[in-house]
Amino acid sequence: MSIDLSEFHDIFFEECFEGLEVLESGLLNLDQNTDVEEINAIFRAAHSIKGGGASFGFTDISDFTHVMETLLDEMRDGRRAITREVVDLLLKSVDCLRDMTNAAKNSEDSDQQRTAAIKQQLEDMLATDGDTKPVTHNDTTQTKVSEDTACSPVEWLIHFRPDSEMLQTGNEPTRLFRELATLGEISVQADMSNLPAYDELNPECCYLGWELVLKGDINKEQIDELFDWVKDCSDLEITPLGNYNQPSTEAVTQADNTATAEAGTTNNDSKNAIQKAKVTDKPKGSGAGKESGSIRVAIDKIDELINLVGELVISQSMLSQIGNHLEDTDLSNTEILRDGLSQLERNTRELQESVLKIRMLPISFSFSRFPRLVRDLSSKVGKQVELKLSGEQTEVDKTVLEKIGDPLVHLVRNSLDHGLETPEIRKANNKPETGSLCLNAYHEGSEIVIEVSDDGAGLNKDRILNKAIEKGLVAENQELTDEQIYNLIFQPGFSTAEQVSDVSGRGVGMDVVRRNIRDLGGNVSITSQPDKGSTVTIRLPLTLAILDGQLTSVGEQTYILSLVSIIESLQVIPEHVSSITGQAEFYQLRDEYIPIIRLSEEFEVEQSSDDLSQGLLVVVEAEGQRYGLFVDDLMGQQQVVIKSLETNFKQLQGISGATILGDGTVALILDVPGLIQRHYEKRNTAMKPVSDVA
Amino acid sequence: MTSVLAVDDSPSIRQMVSYTLESAGYNVVVACDGDEALKIAKNTNMNLVITDVNMPNMDGITLVKKLRSLSDYKFKPILILTTESSMEKKMQGKSAGATGWIVKPFNPDLLLTTLKKVLD
Q1: Based on the domain organization, do A272 and A344 belong to the same domain?
Q2: Does A143 lie at the interface with B, CB-CB under 8 angstroms?
Q3: Which end of chain A is more exposed for a tag (fewer CB within 10 A), N or C?
Q4: Looking at the complex, does the CB of residue A227 fall below 8 Å from at least one CB of chain B?
Q5: Are residues A379 and A526 in the same domain?
């Protein structure tokens, strides 16, 4: 029977990646005091990858892992000390193995040179300690060419006397004979000489022995193989019984045997080839480089959904029952109808929430890479760093999770490189030599907050300000708050590092970080205290699929603003409006002047009235600066499902997406930072308030 | 129908074993470690047990020992799946009471022929 093993490849790869995670995090926690069970867990992870790799035909993976496993085995048995050197090499091997697995998954060739080099290093490591065990890989089930083929008689005499306890290993002599009979003609004679008297007989013991004669073109190996499991708990003698074949016939038999064996392999080979071909047939672009399309979901989330769908069905049947009796409309029916509708509404909302929850994954998926990163980097820059992770179970949308990784890596690198000081400097400043770097995540309202903080030197305010002036980002005489100064580092092309290092970037970093986070509908800010350290705070929406929106009307159009971006809405008092040369308008909001942006002008649509006092000003905040958006009226607040404008139309500056309202019309969702940028680009004026750059 | 208990901590191996055996008409129950397997074995009388050696919680060797101490499994065939082709591991399994072993990597055909060997 032939079974296509490629069906199990995906699950194998997934398992590999999981195993590699276990390996990596296990290795990172490894030191001399690690208890055996932890090393066992690491060992098992490697072992499983090796076993799976071999079973599913990824021999390069299994061969490579085998060497790692041998090393781990020595560590497990205490034969090898756990040194940083060994752990580093194993971590490097994990990376290599991950690349190999990725390559196998995408049906690409892996970097064989690198693999060979690391494998060699592992082997060299194994060779140290004096005991140069050759690393043999004897797991392959090749058809060995028999050494005994030189004499392949046509008759064998088998003397077989099992130990009395053999039955208790589940080995049954009659089954063995059945198997022997498949090899050739067999005759069996029982030896009952050891059989005790009936009342002494223990039914669980075996007292019999057998003499078997086996006829046929059989070599000793085949017989040995059959008795493999019992040979150590029995007396076994296998002897040829005369009648040797003439050399000529023997040669033929042998040739026959090899031929069939070869045919078998060729068959396998061609099967493999077909499988391989099938795999390569897949379009490469689809798999390579993309995030995995599948998602692992906790059972209870699914259960909740199933439950809700059940509820929904009940509500639906309740409503359809009323529908059937609509003719006799009396008041009681209306009552039930209303109940049914409100139940349906609740079910729908809960169902939506639950479905969205499926996409939510704990942020630990993203955090988990940092222990390794920090370990590697800190040794590279010669600093001692303790990484603290908290809030790892905080759940975020899968897309957010995938896209937040790079900005976080950048922030962590920055902290390590620029924020934290070297042990000498820390000591001189009366700080513990080991710096601390914290990653924290928590939910706040409908946002997720991620903080990257360190207890390093903090940002140098003067240096940032000077640099900003030098780059013409701010005017020399401008009054800026500390916060505004710190946030200048998110400006494009801004870097205060005196030397460009290979750890953190060349000043292309922080603005990219900010852009990535903005693309996710979030924002980022930094606070800092000299000598106490800095904290970067990232705020992101919990999900990219729905939005708590405020509907506003401008003429015929409906625009949606995210509720969280709105600070207040007010009626315009005409005296508080001041305009500058008819170009820009400002509104005096308490003791602050905020620019007024007329949405009708931005999007060139008709508005009911140009008169500011006839409409409303919606005060929004973006990048720490407030703006007044002028609209006709505020309509309801509702959760809207975000539809991408890019996929359905094209990207527009100032618009983050669209949604379909209850009456079927399309409403655009405003992207406030983008809108403001659009506003100023359109005007192309120098009127841009300074703090907008922060 | 012949019931087989397949024990392995690797989901892909578990899936492959159960798929292979089910296609061949066996009734397959899977367990991911010795602990779980022992519980299942106690509740359901299986005709054959195939177990991996290296597993969390309870390893395969311990599982074999525990199963052999149950009257229902005293004479049942129990096979161990092992990547260690070394005699040492095999013998460890044997002395625990395993009927025999299948050396990984194995293919579905080998699995089926080996099973036939130990079933009536």
Answers
A1: no
A2: no
A3: N
A4: no
A5: yes
Helices and strands in chain A: count of H runs, count of E runs: 21, 22
Q: Which two tokens stand for residue A461?
A: 């305010």
Q: What is the DSSP string of A569-622?
A: EEE--GGGEEEETTTEEEEEETTEEEEEEEHHHHTT---S-S-GGGSEEEEEEE
Domain boundaries, chain B: 3-109
One domain for residues A237 and A273:
no
Give pLDDT tens digits for B29-46: 999 999 999 999 999 999
Which pairing describes strands A655-660 and A625-631: parallel, antiparallel, or unpaired?
Answer: unpaired
What pLDDT is stored for residue B7 in this prediction?
95
Asked whether residue A137 is domain-assigned, the answer is no
- Cα A617–A620–A625 angle (5° rounding)? 120
Q: Strand order in A666-670's β-sheet?
A: A633-641, A546-554, A557-562, A666-670, A655-660
Pairwise CB contact (< 8 Å): A47 & B109: no
> Are residues A567 and A587 in contact, defined by beta-carbon separation less than 8 angstroms?
no
Count Cβ atoms below 10 Å from residue B52 Cβ, excluding itself: 30
Note if the bond before B105 is cis, omega within 30 degrees. Answer: yes
**Annotated active-site positions of A, please?**
47, 69, 414
Q: Is A51 on the interface with B (CB under 8 A)?
A: yes
Nearest to B54 among A11, A47, A54 (CB): A47
* Cα angle: A241, vertex A245, A247; to 5 degrees: 140
A202 in contact with chain B, both atoms CB, cutoff 8 A: no
User: What pLDDT is stored for residue A686 in this prediction?
Assistant: 45
Per the domain annotation, does A138 fall within a domain? no
Last residue of a domain, one of A309, A329, A358: A358
**Cβ–Cβ < 8 Å for B43, B72:** no
Tokens of A184: 């050739």
Kindly report, residue by residue over A418-448, the tens digit of the pLDDT.
888 889 999 998 889 899 999 999 988 778 8
Q: Could you give the CA distance from residue A200 to residue A418 in angstroms, rounded to a whole number?
A: 86
Residue A153 has a pLDDT of: 56
CATH number where A209 lies: 3.30.70.260
How do the residues of chain A divide into helix, strand and coil, expressed in percent and rounded to 5? 50, 20, 30
Residues of A in contact with B23 (CB under 8 A): 1, 3
The answer to whether position A144 is within a domain reads no
In a domain, A448, yes or no: yes
Q: Which chain B residue shows the shortest CA-CA distance from A229?
A: B100
- The pTM for the full model equals 0.56
Residue A38: partners with Cβ closer than 8 Å, 6 or more residues away: A26, A29, A30
**Residue A232 and residue A172 share a domain:** yes
* Parent domain of A270: 249-287
Interchain pair A12, B12: CB under 8 A: yes
Of the candidates B94, B108, B118, the beta carbon closest to that of A1 is on B108
Greatest Cα-to-Cα distance within chain A, rounded to the nearest angstrom = 123
Convert the pLDDT of each residue in A460-483 to its tens digit: 888 888 888 887 777 777 788 888
Collapsing DSSP to helix, strand or coil, A231 comes out as: helix
- Does A262 share its domain with A386? no
Chain A and chain B share a number of CB contacts under 8 A equal to 114
For tokens 């109808």, the residue is A337
Domain boundary among A524, A541, A558: A541
Residue of A14, A175, A229 best to disrupt the B interface, most CBs of B under 10 A? A229
Distance, C-alpha A651 to centroid of its chain: 29
Name which CATH class applies to B3-109: alpha beta
pLDDT confidence tier of residue A688, bands split at 50, 70 and 90: very low
Mutation target vs A (from B63, B85, B90, B104; most A CBs, 10 A cutoff): B104
CA distances from A534 to A266, A403, A422, A496, A511 (A): 65, 23, 16, 15, 17
Residue A379 and residue A488 in one domain: yes
Q: Does A172 touch chain B (CB under 8 A)?
A: yes
Number of domains in chain A: 6
